[in-house]
Amino acid sequence: MKTAPRNLTAFCLGSLLFAGCTVGPDYKPDHMKLPSGFVESDHAATPEEIARTEEEMKEWWGQYNDPLLNRLVAQAIKGNYDLLIADQRIIAARAVREEAASAWYPQLDANAGGGTNRYSIAVDNWPLRPGNPANQPQASVLTYGAQASWEIDAFGRIRREVEASERAIDVSIEARRATLMTLLSDLVRAYIALRGAQLRFSIAQANVKNAQDEVDLAKKLYLEGIGNTLQIAQASSELDSETATLEPLRAQIDQLTHGVSVLLGDMPGDLKQELEALPGGVASLPVTPRFPATLPSIVVANRPDIRAAERAYAESTARIGVAVAQLYPKFSIPLNFNPNASAMYQAFQINAMSWSFMMLATLPVMHGGRFTSQVVEARARAEASRLAYRKTVLTAFREVEDAMTSWLHNDRYVAQLHRASQDSGLAADRARRLYAAGLTDYLNVLTTQRTLLNAQDREAVARTARLQDTVALYTSMGAGWQGMALRTTELPIDAAKQSILAKAFSR
């Protein structure tokens, strides 16, 4: 009678010794050889410039010196639905980790019941049931008990599963940061595009006023006997053409306003009046920030997509261990306690007791190559994750280089267009003065006026594009999430409506 418990104890202790074994490869980061700097940077960044940029990256939108933009960003971070969805995905990932970790602990279920069982007595030589010598076909049964099981994590299957779940949490956190960066980029881009469209609208309005002045001047010169009806018709045609340019710009402004509202988590159009009434009542573009300084190593450290790809590789590596552990024995301790009786007073007697306690070892013997195929699959997925990480790094560097190129070239492009706009304005003013004095043809006025309109509009478009380039560079550098702490979000569940057991076991 003492041999079985002694052997069982030795068996348990021997199994626990295996608990220190964790099969499968340990994660090792994949180190890529990075360049010392970016090719398209205008100069080698100094440590002071890098430190300044690192600080500015936390709230890079503040570099545009636009209070309204700052307020819209703060509102979007609180109310944007994509961010709220990303918050819930982090909660779900953490719950998956807790679910995986629960396998470390004994699993226990309790049961109780009662009723009547009827047995067949139509079989010859039916054995008498214990406690029922009359061999009655019916019996009252009361039962209660518990079933428990505990898996000994001898080869680290559970540990690898938990490790993979923890890496999945990291991936969801980085995905939330990427969502935040996308939100900031989309919002600032939409806001800059809106301000650019309003600037172009104000330029078009000014040109409409100039065209109206030209019509008035042509009519005045006609009445004074200097002009003719052809000049009036030409001026009227120009006025109609300039007026027609206003409607597409109005539509663009309204559409951009709707887009900004949705990014804030509001209904389209909620901000229309506020965005139309900009400070000072004059449409203008935000200021252009200073060119940021960065290094490839900083980009790798800050880009959420790179960080997520690295964490996904770590998760895939852990899942190799989960697959390898399937090839090893599985040790478990099942426990069943299930007394049965026909009367309540008998339910707790020794004779009613029924239980089993043992140590089980399961060894996979023949499964047609299923487990080895799972190992091959896990290793292939891990290698694919490693390669995806490398591709993500290369893509990130290309985006930074492209953004730097666009910023620097558009900077010079805007400067040239600004000079062209000034020269066109001077030529248009001289043509109007000469025409008013009767010293030139009205065709020269129309030509210089159209040239000025095109130059002003092209400059406004180029200035808007240059600001969009600044957004692209900050985003490609992985800026915007560093100063943002993860929100502590709770599921919208009313605890008062839960059952007593749900309250007791929920955290």
From TrEMBL:
Name the record gives this protein: RND transporter
PROSITE patterns: PROKAR_LIPOPROTEIN
Family label: Belongs to the outer membrane factor (OMF) (TC 1.B.17) family.
Coiled coil: none
Gene3D superfamilies (UniProt xref): Outer membrane efflux proteins (OEP)
Organism: Swaminathania salitolerans
UniProt-listed Pfam families: OEP
Mode of membrane association: Lipid-anchor
Subcellular location: Cell membrane
Main location: membrane
Any one GO MF annotation of this record: efflux transmembrane transporter activity
Keywords linked to the UniProt accession: Lipoprotein, Membrane, Palmitate, Transmembrane, Transmembrane beta strand
Domain of life where this protein originates: Bacteria
InterPro entries in UniProt: MdtP/NodT-like (IPR010131), OMP_efflux (IPR003423)
A GO CC term attached to the entry: plasma membrane
